[in-house]
Amino acid sequence: MLTNGTNDIELDREIAKGYLYVNTGKLKEAIAHFDQLLKNHPNVLAGYLGRGSAKAMLGDLQKALTDFNLAVKKDSKCGDAYKRRGQVKLALGQTQSALEDFNKAIELTPEEGDCYRQRGSAYHALGIFDKAAEDIKKSIKLIPGDATLLNELALCYNGMGLVDESINTYTRAINTKEDYVEPYIHLGQLYRDIGCYVRAKQLLEKAMKLAPTNHLSYYVMANVLASAGRHKEALPLLSRSLSICPPERTGDIHRLNATACLALGMNRSCLKSAKLGYEAKDNASWYFGEIAKYQAMMIDKPFLEYDLEWFPPQWKVNFAKRLPIGNVKKYPPGNVPLQITTEDIDTKTTVKQELVKELLIPAIKVGDKMQYNELGFGKNGRQYLACGLGAICIAQLLQTKQMGWREIAEILVKFRQVAEPADGAIWIDKLPRQQFEEGFGSNTTLKTAQTRVARYWPMFPRTFGLFKKLFEEESGASKEKKQLVAKAETVDEVQKVLKRDNFFMTTICRNEEGTRLEGTWLLIEKVELGSMFSIKTPCTPKRYKIFDVELKKALDKYYTVQHSNDQDKILDAVLRFCYLWFNFMPLTRGTAGCGMYWMFGLLLSAGFKQVGVIPKGFQCDWEALLTDNQNDYITKMKSWIKLEKCSVSEMPNVLNSLPRLRDMLMALNISPLLVPLS
C-alpha cells in the first residue's frame, strides 16, 4: 500500500514514481517530478513529503522545512509530516522544536517505531540520555532486529557512562549485523577510553576491513596508539584518515598528528599539522605548533634547560584552558619562538643497546609500578619510562646533595611534560598573578548532568559520602537542610536542597603534628540538565605559602632518615611528603603522575625500589585527598607497597647518558619496543 496515497490510481502511480526517484538517489529528478505533480495537484500531501525529503537529502534543509510546514498545514493529523519536519529541525539545530514535532508524531502514530527513534535522537542531542534510551528501547520492540537501533541505544548508555551496558549493547549490534561498521568503531573508542587497547585495536582493524574508506576507524585507532605512548605507530593511520576525511572535518586529526609529532621530536611536521589544524577551525592546534618552535630551539641544549614556563603567563592560561589565541598570538619582546632551524629527530635512529639494557629497561621496571588497576588507566610505556627516568634522575642527584622540594619538583615536571606534551603540566604559581590569587586550580569531574566519568566513578561513593559528612559537621546549615542532604541519594537531590548555583565543602588535610590544612573542594555546580560534581583544588598564594612550609619540613625529615637504611622510617617519611604533594596540587595537570615520580625517586635515593602492585580500586592521589590524616594514609599505602634493595649508583647517570632534550626524546621514543600494547 502506498504511504500517504490518494486512492487515485493514476495519481498514486505518479507519487510512487517520485518516491522511487528519492529511494534510488535521483534527488534532482525527484524534485522536478514533484514540482510538476504539485503544480497540477497542489493539495496532494505526498508531493510535499516526497519533495521535502529529496531537498533534505540534498542538504537544502530550509527549503525542506518549508515543504514539511506545508504538509502539516495540508493535514494536521499526519504523523509522518511531523516526524519528517522534526528530523529537519533536528538537523538545523532546532532541537526543542524538533522534540515537539516528534511528540506530536507519536501521539498520532503510537505504533510507528521510527518516531520513537527520532525522538530518542532529539533527547540524545540534548544530553537527556535516559529518556533517549527509553525511546530507543521502544523503537527496538517495534522494529526488532535493527542493528542501527542497538548501536544508538549503546550510544545512550555510553553518554551516561554506563560501561558494561554500552559494551553489551554494541556487541548485540555487531552480532545482529556483522558487516555494520559503526558499532565496531564506537566500541573500539569505548575500549580505548577505558584503557583496553588490544581489544580496541582488534575492533578497529575489523572496522577498517569492513569500510576501508571510513576515516574514523583510522583516527580512533591512532588515538588508541597515542594513548598507549605509541606515537610513531599512529602517524600512518592519521595520514590515511586525513586522505579520506572531508577537509572541513580534519581539525581533530591534524591536532592529534601535531601532538604525536611533537612527542617524537618531529618539530617541523608538528608545526605543519598545527597550522593545518588551526586552518580547519581547531583552535587548540595552534598551541602545539608554538611548542614545536620552542622545542626546536631547545632540542640540542641540556635537558634541564627545557621549561614550558618559558611561555608568557597568559599564554599558559589559554593553553591550559584551550582558549582562543587572540590575546596571546603576539609575544612580548625577547620571548618569541624562533622559526625552526634545528634538525628534527629521525625516528629510525635509536639509542645504544647498552644504555637500553643498563638504564632504560630498569627505568621501565621502576615506572610501571605507577599503573593504576582501574578503568580508564591504560598502560603507557612512554609514561612508565619517563616516570622511571625522572625517579632515577632525582635519586642520583640526591645521593650527593640535598635539594629543596621546588628544585626537585621542577626537574620531575620536565619529565612529565616530555612524557606527553599534549597534557601541558604547568605550574599554577607561574600563571598571571590574578589567576593565581583567584585560585586557578586542578579540576577533576566525577559526574556532569547525566554522565558518569568512568575513570573516576569508582571514587564517587566515598567522595559523595565525604561531602555529606562534611556538610553535616561543618556547613553551619539548618538542621532540616542537614537531614535532607544526609538522606539524598544523588548529587541532583543535594543541589535541589542547597538551591545554589555552586556550593563546596573543603576536605580535611593535616600535617604530621595534626594541624589542619586546606584540602580540596568537593564542588557541586548547577548545570543545564542537573548538576556537576567535581573536585577542585584552588592554588592561591596563601595556600601555596602554607604547603611550601609543610613540604620543606617533610623533605627535611626525609633527609634525616635518607641514609639510615631503616626501611620503615624511610617509607613513612616518603609517604608523608607524598600525602602533602597530592593534596597541594600545584600543577594545572599531572600532579598525580608527578606524585608517583616523587615516591619512587625518594625511595630510590634511600636505596629502595617499590615493587608492589597497586590493587584494583586504589588510586594513590585520591586516597590522599579523601583521608584526613597522614597516619591513616600511610597505613593504607603500606597495605600494598613492597620494597626491595636497589642502588641507583650502579646505573648509568641519567643526565650524563641523556644530556640533551634530543637524547631524552630519543630514549622515550623507543618505549614501544620495551612495553607491549595491552
Q: What order do the helices and strands come in, and which of them pair?
A:
Elements: H1 9-23, H2 27-40, H3 45-57, H4 61-74, H5 79-91, H6 95-108, H7 113-126, H8 129-142, H9 147-159, H10 163-176, H11 182-193, H12 197-210, H13 215-227, H14 231-244, H15 251-264, H16 267-279, H17 285-298, H18 313-321, H19 353-367, H20 381-400, H21 405-419, H22 433-437, E1 441-448, E2 451-452, H23 460-474, H24 479-487, H25 491-498, E3 502-510, E4 516-527, E5 530-538, H26 541-561, H27 567-584, H28 591-605, E6 608-610, H29 620-626, H30 630-638, E7 643-645, H31 654-657, H32 661-669, H33 671-674
Antiparallel strand pairs: 1-2, 1-5, 3-4, 4-5, 6-7
GO biological process, one term: negative regulation of DNA-templated transcription
TPR repeats: 11-44, 79-112, 113-146, 181-214
InterPro entries: SRFR1-like (IPR044650), TPR-like_helical_dom_sf (IPR011990), TPR_rpt (IPR019734)
